[in-house]
Known about the structure:
Layout lengths: L8 H12 L4 H10 L4 H18 L13 E3 L4 E8 L4 E5 L4 H11 L4 E2 L2 E2 L6 E2 L7 E4 L6 H14 L10 E4 L1
Antiparallel strand pairs: 1-2, 2-3, 4-7, 5-6, 7-8
Helix pairs in contact: 1-3, 2-3
Amino acid sequence: MAAISTITPExxxxxxxxxxxxxSSESIVEVMIENDFESTFAEAVVxxxxxxxxxxxxxxxxxxxxxxxxxxxxxxxVRIAARFDRPCVVILDDLFTGEECAxxxxxxxxxxxxxxxxxxxTGEEAVIEERTSWGTFFELNENDFISKLDRRISEVxxxxxxxxxxxxxxxx
Length: 172
């Protein structure tokens, strides 16, 4: 069988996704060769796509570092209440509406668990008396409501949603 020297859109996306995930070029090429790609061709594809991915993942600083008192997102105007350059600290007003906060609280009520710490002797998670908070996490894009909030945070930070972390709710 002749080695493959063309790339389908599916393979191109697979390579790009693995580059974005931090896989080494060598490991990506190795898998391609195992799947009958010609080695020089596989190396060239990974090199070109790696350069392309690096260029597409060069982001501007978060939008709140720019001048102005507001950040326009797709669905609302977020007010910058205060900004300090060194260290970089920004206080945002109205990132979420009161209704959105109430919905987050409501959605988290059944998910809250006592906050844990790592036991230094066992390395296991443990509940300790001194830590009295309860918390939960929402996975990135867990549902339509969370996706809307994740998108807004992404726009404010000028950072791709997939590079973010899920929302954390903490009840003291």
